[in-house]
Design brief:
Elements lengths: L14 H28 L2 E9 L1 H12 L2 E3 L11 E9 H9 L4 E6 L2 E6 L4 H12 L5 E6 L12 E3 L6 E3 L5 E6 L8
Parallel strand pairs: 2-5
Antiparallel strand pairs: 1-3, 4-5, 6-9, 7-8
Length: about 190
């Protein structure tokens, strides 16, 4: 009644290699599919058609479409020129790059928020501005001597140009030297 099989049941040679290859390819395809799905969910798409609109209104429309919040101080947007933008199903980062092009603002994306701040000039721009202000062709050198009623020099007297933020101090002989524009007037 019982049948005993003496021969071992073995799969043909090379079949295990084919099964392993199929498993590896299936795993690879699943990983690629999952990564593609997650990448498309993170890439927010924006469609806008604005002409001469304030940044606040554009931020509201982008926020409604993407769910991202825009964080900024009201003082940050004062004096910002109106913007015009055309975007048709474009990524949020590309739209924001185009929106802030030529504006004195920068943005960073943190979680589900876009943080907006004033653009800080680089060190080279700051130095360039200071040197160009100092070397303006219309700047004038103001020289003079500070003394009291007995014609004695006043050492360490502070001299300001009207409307200027920096100052000059007289030396031990009472002399001072200051650069400024011809419209600047010495304050008494």
């Amino acid at each position: 009644m019982y049948i005993f099989y003496n021969k071992k049941i073995v799969q043909p040679p090379g079949c295990i290699n084919k099964i392993l290859l199929i498993m590896k390819l299936t795993t690879l395809l699943l990983m690629v599919f999952i990564m593609q799905v997650s990448a498309t969910t993170f890439a927010q798409r924006v469609t806008l058609s604005e002409n001469g609109t304030t940044l606040k209104k554009v931020f509201d429309k982008i926020s409604n479409q993407t769910g991202y919040d825009f964080l900024f101080a009201d003082a940050t947007l004062k004096g910002i020129k109106p913007v015009s933008i055309q975007a048709n199903n474009e990524e949020l980062k590309i739209v924001l790059d185009r929106l802030f092009d030529g504006q004195p603002l920068v943005y960073t994306i943190e979680d589900k928020a876009v943080v907006i701040s004033k653009k800080e000039p680089s060190f080279l721009e700051t130095v360039k501005n200071k040197v160009s202000d100092f070397l303006k062709p219309d700047s004038t050198i103001y020289k003079g001597r500070v003394y009291n009623e007995k014609d004695q020099p006043l050492v360490g007297a502070t001299i300001f140009l009207k409307g200027a933020t920096n100052m000059s101090i007289s030396n031990e002989a009472g002399y001072f030297q200051r650069y400024g524009t011809p419209t600047s007037i010495l304050r008494p």
